[in-house]
Amino acid sequence: LIAMSITACEKSSDDTGSGSGSIPANGWRIGTTNYTTVLAMRNVGQPNSIGAFDAVPNANNLNTVIVLFNNTTGIAAGTFKVVTKANQSDLLANEIMVAPSTGYNQSTGQYNKQYATVIGETVDATVTITGGKAKIVIPQINIISVPINSSSTTSNFAGTIVEN
Fold first, then answer.
1. Under 8 Å between Cβ of 76 and 64
2. DSSP 109
3. Quick one: DSSP state of residue 23?
């Protein structure tokens, strides 16, 4: 679904909830759970992407969020609609995709849960570039676990991803 490896997800209740609506200053929120960015860098898994991690990559129970930009225009300052599309190459110049994942299992190499933003619902994210580093502010948007099926869970997401 999201130009990344999408795996089976398990239902859990630890990340459901309405959230407070606030946007974390350095990290992201899924439901009522906050994650603080330890590392954020470009081209994580895909070109024209910025990935944020709440621990050292490959650590057990790692949580991440990847922001994908259009393949042609790349990472740029401006206002972008947060959308879900089949592939990164389908993004328009003014669109980004946000792909959060939780509970990385080092032994299986898989996340416990991966999400996509709910199709048809969009918010505008703001991207600024300072000293060549991006800061992406994403207001609250609804997300759903993928693959989408009867076991999918819904929650919400908001975050500020600051490239370091």
1. no
2. T
3. P
Q: Please count the other Cβ atoms lying within 10 Å of the Cβ belonging to residue 137.
A: 17
Q: Which amino acid is residue 7, in one-letter code?
A: T
The residue-averaged pLDDT of 69-80 equals 92
Q: What's the rounded Cα separation, in Å, for the pair 30 and 154?
A: 10
Q: Which residues of 44-60 are buried (b: 16+ CB within 10 A; e: fewer)?
A: bebebbbbbbbbeeeee
DSSP 46-100: SSSEEEEESSSTT-TT--EEEEEE-TTT-S-SEEEEE---SSGGG--TTEEEEEE
Express each pLDDT in 148-157 by its tens digit.
899 999 999 9
| Residue 32: CB atoms within 10 Å | 14
